[in-house]
Design a protein that fits this description.
Number of strands of chain B: 8
Low-confidence stretches of chain C: none
Largest sheet of chain C: none
Radius of gyration of chain C: 21 Å
Number of helices of chain C: 16
Number of domains of chain B: 1
Structural class of chain C: mainly alpha
Order of helices and strands of chain B: HEEEHHHHHEEHHHHHHEEEHHHH
CATH topology of chain B: Cytochrome-c3 Hydrogenase, chain B
Order of helices and strands of chain C: HHHHHHHHHHHHHHHH
Oligomer: heterotrimer
CATH architecture of chain B: Orthogonal Bundle
Low-confidence stretches of chain B: none
Shape of chain C: globular
Mean pLDDT of chain C: 81
CATH superfamily of chain B: Cytochrome-c3 Hydrogenase, chain B
Chains: A alpha+beta, B alpha+beta, C mainly alpha
Number of domains of chain C: 1
Distance between the termini of chain B: 45 Å
Largest interface: B-C, 37 and 33 residues
Chain lengths: ~170, ~375, ~350
């Protein structure tokens, strides 16, 4: 007899637990306000979709005079674990005819970057920063190799040095 | 049908050899399980690994200790923060660097947040393994909140190389504590739904209870750690037996179940989520103001010798072993990854079960394949 | 008045008369067959597209998602786009497969589901064939589909497919019993297997209300067993995604895969249609005892809307099952049938026979 009772108790217990699960899904079915999906390409124009600190890519901020903070010292290149950064420097004649070393090209391979952030942390002049752009898809891999310093830009500190001297 | 075709499907004695993976929905990564089947009964499971071997240990020998951090992220990507912490703790202990209190508590909070996120993902994926597809979305929905906290503070959602020997890369976001507490409150409300949807479900219980029983002896013999080991009654929580950070100052329980079946492993993880929430509540209030990093030399050189540090990741005990010859690169670096041991117990505990149980068992071991191959 | 305006038999009668006046009786029958065939073909395709869309929307809402929303308004054309994609996809040739059976299998599956639709009464006077043995015919024809599944699994020379097909065989053979027995309970109530008679007997109340608790039990058992018979979750073992990748249709691609896919949804419709016809009164409106005003208002809703409303409700319940529960294991599946559903069903049938004998139903 106890076997029969257990048999039916099992069935009732099973139905009860199954109904418990169905109540959860049924509840969400009837409450469309709980939808969490973001409609991505449209939402881009309406609200900010990434936080301010988002690591999208490494950028080099330039001011309005097209000047940046990079001295071309090469510490970022040294710290980068995967060789995503190449620094090419050139020598230009300075004030008193002395040749000084300045950055020619700060090459950044986005395709190799692992976003560890060491280059930004170690930069002695805070020349690098995180950019929030994350839409990096391109049709050609070579487009992922970027030159961070804009053409014609110069080191901010050069003017300061000049000012200090004069 | 020609005989050639017959032999291709079935062996002489009626056994079928089935290759599960490297592309298979329930191996969760590029793992290949060579399964010998008799009908639907599993006779033998032979895991084949190495499909995602990247040589991280060798790469570490050519990186400085600061650069190694970002490689450890990519081993067990679901407990990225704990992996980072293991290397950082090793370097700090070797050099005797005193880490600020603030950093210690932030690390604990992050550890537990990562653990919850990992268990949520596991819960989702386990539901999916067993066919409950809606569970997947509920787990992912709540995990999103943790990832948002991470993104706000560190800028990345999964592989945040946020630790550095001596402290943190930069300070956490001012809203960090507030948002963490909001999450704890939110998730305590949602957790009963998890239990109602899956834990109490009679189909789920039948699928997991008594399936893949691993005895305590087997767990110790294979070195199975983490929730999988604790489901077999093996007390192996590194946070308790060899506390690091400030874990010895916080109150929490080590969850141990003695049954050793898939359901016990499941319950350990679900209870661990609750414990992690408790730990976060205790630790968040203790985050004091202060520096976010200790003073560390730009180039770290460990004194000659051997070093070992272990931490508790979401999957078990992660050990970092370093042999240093006094230079800025380690001479040899080895990781004792928990998943490697957890995988190879599969043959012992899955033998004699059905192929559907094999999925339930391998799911309950919570494997992350890149951690096995490294 | 409302008896006449929604009666399709008038319309079909007029068409019949018009055809007979222009051609010989033989040609009339042939023309009518072709017309009905074309109508069903169109209906089949449209319903398949709609059901796939509905399933995606239902599961999306349950999972806190929006679901398809890009193609057309609210994504209504999403399934059309998917169909075009499937039609243009390459049909993969499997090495060392039994090509004849491999190509035949999807057709068997789809033909089986197509045959059954002929006997379904959609509305008053809207039924292609009103067979004496309507229920028997539907049960017999729908279970033909498993032959296609078995052939497809065997012929594609893949171990996943083979295991899936064998599971399907065991599953359908077992659950056919429960489906048959629970339908038998209504046959006992009405004393007829003709579908139009069964519907006519529910004019004063649906069997699920008239038949007391045993009818409710029979309905629930039918719902579970039918879900299993059409291989839908939580009984979707033949295509268990996480174990067998896709089960019996792992190796199928393009339109052949689409046929399996469509047949699954059509079977779901058929199962819901049978449940509606037998338990929920078919196209009969909902009546409550002596509330004459209420009953009159209900009568003004066309019978075709009643039918499809009930069918889609049952389809929704079946979808609800799928998106909530984990999958069963094969031995648990068979245990559920042989240990729980079948004994309960047998006892239930005896009780119903007793009730009918004593005349205790309304």
């Amino acid at each position: 007899m106890s076997g029969v009772i257990k048999y039916f108790a099992d069935i009732l217990h099973g139905i009860k637990t199954l109904w418990g699960g169905m109540r959860i899904t049924g509840k969400y079915f009837l409450s469309p306000k709980e939808i969490v999906t973001q409609q991505y390409p449209e939402i881009r124009h309406k609200q900010k979709i990434v936080y301010d600190r988002f690591k999208g890519e490494v950028i080099m901020p330039h001011d309005e005079n097209n000047q940046h903070n990079c001295t071309g010292c090469g510490v970022c290149e040294m710290y980068c674990p995967n060789g995503s950064i190449e620094i090419i420097t050139k020598k230009i004649p300075g004030e008193n005819g002395k040749m000084i070393k300045v950055i020619d090209k700060h090459i950044y391979h986005l395709s190799m970057c692992t976003f560890c952030g060491l280059c930004i942390k170690v930069c002695p002049t805070q020349a690098l920063a995180w950019g929030q752009n994350f839409e990096h898809a391109v049709y050609d891999r070579s487009k992922l190799t970027k030159v961070l310093n804009k053409p014609g830009s110069s080191y901010k500190g050069l003017n300061k040095k000049k000012e200090a001297k004069s | 049908m020609d005989t050639k075709l017959k032999n291709y499907i079935v062996k002489e004695n009626g056994d079928i050899i089935l290759n599960m993976g490297p592309q298979h929905p329930s191996t969760h990564g590029v793992l290949r399980l060579e399964v010998v089947l008799k009908g639907e009964t599993v006779k033998q499971v032979v895991p084949h690994i190495g499909y995602i071997h990247r040589g991280i240990e060798k790469m570490c020998e050519y990186d400085t200790y600061k650069q190694i951090i970002h490689l450890t992220d990519r081993m067990d990507y679901l407990s990225a923060h704990m992996n980072n912490e293991a290397v950082c703790l090793l370097v700090e202990n070797a050099l005797g660097i005193e880490v600020p209190e603030r950093v210690k508590y932030i690390r604990v909070v992050l550890d537990e947040l990562t653990r919850i996120a990992s268990h949520q993902l596991w819960w989702s994926a386990y539901g999916m393994d067993l066919g409950a597809l809606t569970a997947f979305f509920y787990g992912m929905r709540d995990r999103e909140r943790i990832l948002d906290i991470f993104e706000e503070s560190f800028g990345s959602r999964l592989l945040h190389s946020f630790n550095t020997p001596g402290g943190l890369m930069h300070d956490v976001h001012p809203n960090f504590q507030k948002h963490t507490m909001e999450f704890v409150k939110y998730f305590r409300k949602k957790l009963p739904e998890y239990h109602q949807l899956l834990t109490d479900n009679v189909i789920f219980r039948n699928r997991t209870q008594g399936i893949g029983v691993m005895s305590k002896e087997t767990a110790i013999a294979y070195g199975v750690t983490g929730p999988s080991g604790r489901g077999s009654g093996y007390s192996c929580d590194v946070r308790k037996i060899a506390p690091y950070g400030v874990y010895d100052q916080l109150e929490f329980e080590e969850i141990i179940y003695d049954e050793g079946d898939s359901f016990a492993r499941y319950m350990v993880r679900m209870k661990e989520i609750e414990q992690s929430l408790n730990i976060i509540e205790q630790a968040v209030d203790k985050i004091t103001d202060g520096p976010y990093t200790a003073k560390v030399k730009p180039i770290i050189k460990l004194p000659e010798g051997e070093y070992y540090q272990r931490v508790e990741t979401a999957r078990g005990e992660l050990g970092v072993y370093v042999v240093s010859d006094g230079k800025k690169f380690p001479y040899r670096m080895h990781f004792r990854s928990p998943n490697f041991n957890n995988l190879f117990v599969l043959n012992t505990i899955a033998k004699g079960h059905l192929i559907a149980d094999l999925v339930a068992i391998s799911g309950s071991l919570d494997l992350v394949i890149p951690d096995i191959d490294r | 008045m409302h008896d006449r305006i929604y009666d399709f038999s008038q319309l079909t009668h007029h068409i019949d008369q018009a055809l007979r006046s222009v051609m010989s009786p033989t040609w009339t029958v042939i023309t009518e067959l072709v017309i009905i065939g074309l109508i069903f073909l169109g209906f089949y395709a449209l319903l398949g597209l709609f059901l796939v869309y509905a399933e995606r929307k239902v599961c999306a809402l349950m999972q806190n998602r929006i679901g398809p929303n890009r193609v057309g308004k609210w994504g209504t054309l999403q399934t059309v786009a998917d169909l075009i994609k499937l039609l243009t996809k390459e049909l993969v040739y499997i090495k060392r497969s039994d090509k004849f059976l491999y190509n035949l299998a999807p057709f068997i599956v789809i033909v089986a589901s197509f045959l059954a639709i002929a006997a379904v009464p959609f509305a008053k006077g809207l039924q292609a064939v009103d067979l004496d043995i309507g229920i028997f015919y539907i049960i017999a024809v729908t279970s033909l589909g498993v032959i296609g599944i078995l052939l497809g699994g065997w012929a594609s020379n893949s171990k996943y497919s083979l295991i899936g097909a064998m599971r399907s065989g065991a599953q359908v053979v077992s659950y056919e019993l429960s489906v048959g027995l629970s339908l038998l309970s209504i046959v006992i109530f009405t004393g007829s297997t003709r579908l139009s008679t069964i519907i006519a007997s529910q004019a004063d109340g649906w069997w699920i209300f008239k038949g007391h608790i045993p009818a409710v039990i029979a309905f629930l058992i039918y719902l579970v067993a039918a879900t299993a018979e059409i291989n839908r979750g939580p009984f979707d073992l033949p295509e268990a995604e996480s174990e067998l990748t896709a089960g019996f249709h792992t190796e199928y691609s393009g339109i052949k895969f689409a046929m399996f896919f469509l047949a699954e949804y059509m079977n779901m419709f058929l199962v819901a249609a049978i449940a509606t016809t037998l338990f929920l009164g078919g196209w009969m409106p909902f009546h409550i005892g002596h509330w004459d005003a209420f009953n009159r208002i209900m009568d003004y809703i066309p019978s075709i809307i009643w039918f499809f409303g009930k069918v889609f409700f049952i389809i929704y319940v079946i979808m609800w099952f799928k998106w909530t529960f984990p999958r069963l294991r094969i031995d648990q599946l068979l245990k559920l049938e042989w240990k729980y559903l079948l004994p309960l069903n047998l006892i239930n049938t005896i009780i119903i026979a007793f009730i009918v004998m004593m005349g205790w139903y309304f």
